[in-house]
Design a protein that fits this description.
single chain, 583 residues, four-stranded antiparallel beta sheet, 7 strands
């Protein structure tokens, strides 16, 4: 990728983000503007904003990288990400808007009349938000490293600075315009290069990728290894190496790597001939397995393919409704009907985007198999225009893709920072309104920025999948039972949040920290939704049944508010319904 063009593309997106955000800043005046845009966002604009913040670095970079590395079974990610909005539409969208809340802890307290439930919910919102911010900042570091060669932490720091300024300045009103704009930037950044990439692929008469076999270098390819790794070679291959191989220094020397393991030193360059099969690092043995989406009992993905597939499906299908940065957008709708219309539009916008992602993963397996060797599979979307097309056109398309990647992590990081700062401002700094909201943006982004500098080897989409698992195990039971079951009690809600969400959060923390690396223990921790979601539901139901006398006295009135259609605006304002007549 041409660095000058790439930097220009990223800079253009950042400047455009600042300018669009300034539009919202000019009309953000009240506390309600900062938290929920005074609940006046129209469905079409809101749908674009929801899609803009939902399509994160995991969607733009990570899913294509997983398709490149592990095959078409990774298409469960975009399917789950999109289908989650169907569950949200059916069970949550309209009642949640009618609750009149600003945040998920607001809803928990209003429904159950308990400060204790609110505090537990606030902790989980912050935990999910920080966990979701990690891959956004990692994606920023990866993009900046490819563009400039700068260290990865610098990209995360740059995004943190831009997001802090945008969120603190204009709040939800400003971020709404920014995220809607960035959705169309991301769609354009994928669609336009995709057309050129397909034309180049057809013109080059390249073969279709073979998913059930180890990928092949279709061209002579030079790979630079920036950290020590051990390669497993299944078929002898001749390479030209400069650096250190098997502990011996070499300089532009032809070598024959025989079958077995070979140690490659730091800053070593290997040149593979066309037709050589790609040797893969020992640290990711699951990437050598063939695609198995149609054979879920096959012995890949840590030997427990069926379990991990169901864990991914449950996490993505049920986790969407509990993501704080997604849920908060429904509070900005004028009423429940507008919230439903927003959700339907989001399904169409997400579908258009996710049709393009598998194409990049597929072409990456043909034209960028070296990313499997270095472990930088998340970079497939960024490098393909230069690999297939090259020249000025390739540089321009690369700049467009780089700008889209920048929009991806900026928009999602903005939404997450907005939701976490809202909770921190209300539950930690509760007295000074907008002033404390602005102060809360600093810890909201600073903590994950510091963690991202430490956790650098977790694939972007995998990290987001972990956040979905925590969300599905905590807020999915709380929202579904809180909206549809009168018998939910505060002790039941706390038990479900702690046992379901808390156990899932502990599991994913252990996964990120590198606890168990193989066997059933690793599988249970890396895909906890299979057991943590039922635990969350069971704990809430059983504890609530055991504490029937603790059902809040205003439950009937609260349930009526959640499920009855809103009256017309004049009647609502006269009766003091939430969202009507507020500044």
């Amino acid at each position: 990728m041409n660095r000058t063009y790439g930097i220009a593309g990223v800079t253009a997106v950042i400047l455009a983000t600042v300018l669009v955000g300034a539009l919202g800043l000019r009309i953000s005046r009240t506390t309600s503007d900062f938290y929920v845009a005074s609940r006046t966002v129209a469905p079409r604009l809101n749908a674009c904003a929801v899609s803009g913040e939902y399509l994160s670095a995991a969607s733009f970079l990570g899913v294509a990288g997983l398709v490149l590395a592990q095959g078409v079974d990774m298409l469960w990610f975009p399917i789950g990400y999109t289908a989650g909005f169907l569950v949200l539409l059916a069970f949550v969208a309209a009642p949640l808007r009618r609750s009149g809340a600003y945040t998920l802890p607001d809803f928990a307290e209003a429904r159950l009349q308990s400060r204790a439930v609110r505090r537990v919910a606030a902790v989980l919102v912050v935990g999910i938000g920080w966990l979701y911010l990690l891959p956004q900042l990692r994606g920023a570091g990866l993009t900046l490293r490819l563009l400039t060669g700068a260290p990865g932490w610098l990209g995360g720091l740059l995004v943190a600075a831009v997001v802090t300024a945008a969120v603190a300045a204009g709040g939800m009103r400003s971020i709404t315009f920014v995220q809607a704009f960035q959705y169309w930037v991301k769609l354009t950044a994928l669609l336009v290069p995709a057309v050129f990439l397909l034309l180049a692929w057809r013109a080059g008469h390249a073969p279709a990728p073979v998913w059930d076999d180890r990928p092949v270098f279709h061209r002579a390819t030079e790979v630079r290894v920036d950290r020590p790794l051990t390669l497993t070679v299944h078929e002898p291959v001749r390479v030209t190496a400069t650096g250190a191989v098997d502990g011996r220094p070499v300089h532009a020397a032809p070598l024959r790597l025989g079958q077995g393991r070979h140690r490659i030193g730091t800053d070593t360059t290997l040149r593979f001939p066309a037709g050589a099969r790609v040797p893969l690092p020992d640290r990711t043995p699951e990437r050598t397995a063939p695609s198995s989406w149609a054979r879920p009992l096959s012995a890949d993905r840590e030997q427990h393919g069926l379990y991990s597939t169901y864990g991914l499906i449950l996490a993505t299908f049920l986790g969407t409704m509990g993501l704080p940065h997604v849920v908060v957008r429904f509070y900005t709708s004028p009423d429940g009907r507008a919230a439903r219309r927003t959700t339907v539009s989001v399904l169409g916008l997400l579908g258009a985007f996710y049709l393009l992602i598998p194409l990049y993963g597929t072409l990456g397996r043909l034209y960028a198999p070296d990313l499997l060797l270095t472990g930088d599979t998340d970079a497939a979307v960024l490098v393909l225009p230069g690999r297939l097309i090259g020249g000025v056109v390739g540089d321009l398309l690369g700049a467009l893709v780089a700008g889209g990647a920048c929009a991806a992590f900026l928009s999602t990081a903005s939404g997450l920072t907005m939701s976490v700062a809202g909770v921190l401002a209300q539950d930690v700094l509760p007295t000074l309104g907008v002033r404390h909201f602005r102060l809360a943006t600093l810890p909201a982004i600073a903590v994950p920025a510091a963690a991202a500098a430490v956790v650098s080897d977790l694939p972007v989409a995998d990290a987001v999948g972990l956040a979905f698992a925590v969300s599905a195990s905590s807020f999915c039971p709380l929202l579904v039972l809180g909206i549809w079951w009168r018998g939910l009690t505060p002790p039941g809600a706390i038990a479900g949040l702690l046992l379901g969400g808390g156990s899932a959060l502990a599991a994913v923390t252990a996964t990120i920290a590198g606890g168990a690396r193989s066997g059933w223990m690793h599988t249970l921790l890396a895909w906890p939704a299979v057991w943590s979601v039922p635990v969350g539901f069971a704990a809430m139901i059983l504890t609530s049944l055991a504490t029937r006398d603790r059902v809040p006295p205003a439950t009937a009135a609260t349930m009526a508010r959640l499920h009855l259609p809103e009256p017309t605006p004049p009647v609502a304002a006269r009766r003091g319904w939430p969202g009507w007549g507020r500044p």
